[in-house]
Amino acid sequence: MMNLQGDSSSDFLDAVIAGLPASWDWRQPVLVAVSGGGDSMALLHGLVAVGQRIGADVAALLQVAHVEYDLRPTATGDRNFVQEQAAALGLTCHWRRLPVAEQGSRLSGEGLEAAARRVRYDFFTEVAGEIGARHVAVGHTRDDQAETILHRVLRGTGLNGLAGMPRARQLAEGVSLVRPLLGIKRQQVRGYLETHGLAWREDESNENTAFSRNFLRHRLLSEAEQGPYPAATEALARLGDQAAEYASRRAEAVAQAIAGGVSRGADGSLLLSRRLAADTEGDAHLLADVLLGIWRQQGWPRQALTHQHLRRLTSMCTAGDQQKGAEPSAVDLPGGVRAICHPEGLLLRRTMA
Question: What is the DSSP letter of 202?
Answer without folding.
Answer: -
